[in-house]
Amino acid sequence: MLAAMKTTTLPLALIAALAQNRVIGRDNQLPWRLPADLKHFKAMTLGKPVIMGRKTWDSLGRPLPGRLNLVVSRQPGLQLEGAEVFSSLDAAIERAEHWAREQGAGELMLIGGAQLYAQALERADRLYLTRVDLRPEGDAWFPEFSEAEWVREAHDEHPATADTPAYDFETWVRR
Prior knowledge:
Elements: E1 12-19, E2 23-25, H1 35-45, E3 49-53, H2 54-60, E4 68-72, E5 84-86, H3 89-103, E6 108-112, H4 114-120, E7 126-132, E8 140-141, E9 150-158, E10 167-174
Parallel strand pairs: 1-6, 1-7, 3-4, 3-6, 4-5
Antiparallel strand pairs: 2-8, 7-10, 9-10
């Protein structure tokens, strides 16, 4: 098992909304409008450090208030107003852990995108997934993961309405 690679003592959580075909984005945007998921995302991440890739940062258009915004980018010398920039996921996690301990936050949140999800999945402790009952076209996907390595701790179903597709909030914890 890859647990030996783990460098944090606080839990690392990946939070994502994904379609049935694992699509998480298209043209650097969410391929659906789901206000309840945005509210859920805010509730889950507020007061915690959020780690993201530069494309995810660009898609947000501004720093997320009430959170330490950490951006991982390969672009040397990149400076972003309202965020701290790191050249590696490891460096961002180290900073996130330091800040979280100072602030009393109980976990580190990785909010995307696809490349960082793939890089961090093997070291993640928790997955907060919004499963959206759609199969949209996309150009970014959440990585496949073995459910045998995880336990689904919570599952909250929401049926489709006239305005939104059906979706489920799921919490997965590594076995």
